[in-house]
Amino acid sequence: MNTTESRHSAARLADLLKNERHAMADFLLALAEFDRRRGWIQLGYSSLFTFLTGRLELSKAAAFFRFKAAGLIQRYPEIVAPLRDGRLCITTMASLARVLTPENSAAVLPRFFHLSKQEAKGIAAEFLPVANPPRRTVVTTVLVAPIANPPETTSQTVFLDEPNPPKEGPMPSKDPVVALEPAMRVEPLTATVRRVHLTVSDAFLEKLEAARLALSHSMPGASEEDVLAAGLDLLLARDAKNKALVEKPRSTTAEVADAPEFDRVSAAARREVWRRDGGACQWLLDSGGVCGSRLRVELDHIIPVALGGRSVIGNLRLLCDCHNRWAARQKLGHGLMNRYCRDPRQPMLAGLPGETSGG
Fold it and tell me: Domains (ranges, CATH) in the chain?
């Protein structure tokens, strides 16, 4: 697929998405009117929710969000427009319903625009914080689904609440609980406190305890959060050093003096590019703006070194791993890159036809 075909496909997808949003808004308006007239009771259903799951055969989750949206529309017709144009997502209805009032609608509703379900929960927690949120660490044995060649570790479920959970918690339950949740889940409790549900191995818990003991002199009485925060600080400090983002960098003269004769990215250039690009991928999008990803971001030569590009600030930019590989394919060709790139993390960039340009 070349660029022109991709643009046509993107335009068609945008039209389909617009139609989907309009259709959803129309459905919710009709559902709100159906509920207002209690049409479901005439058909033998005890509630709108049972009508959605029974007559329309929606899943309980899908029915729940539509049930909440129909109720909100009856009280706040102003949510229809943002639902229709995509600013408001149906999965945020439950959180929005908790905090929206006639008095605060004008100020609160825009805060839910373009949010995910989890982000909406965070906004709701600001308005309705959990009173006296629990501050504890709970470790329980979890029965996980069997996997091929499992490692010799036992999974444990750890609940961490901030701050200062007690050192001695309840013993693991004798009756394993089947784990149905993802490996990590974050639940907002207040505007600043989050509960973390994390599935870890026995080896992780051993390391956590060893780290707590290692910090027992410098941080006596450190909580699990303190230990993890200290470890994250070390990791981030190491990452900043790799990017030359140190608080007191050496002079540019000293950095150049230490550089070998072949062309390389100096620490000063690396530091300036990371700061200039804000640590985010600068790949230009066809629709305008840049990619902006912060995942696996690395330095890229705009003109590759293989084609005579120099390691100077003006020829450097930050790209995510995917766009860095795609840029190399555009400059050096798929045939050459297929010989070197067999990364399973990038299936869409592996084994492409031996073309010489990205199209």
Answer: 10-127 (no CATH), 137-240 (no CATH), 252-349 (1.10.30)
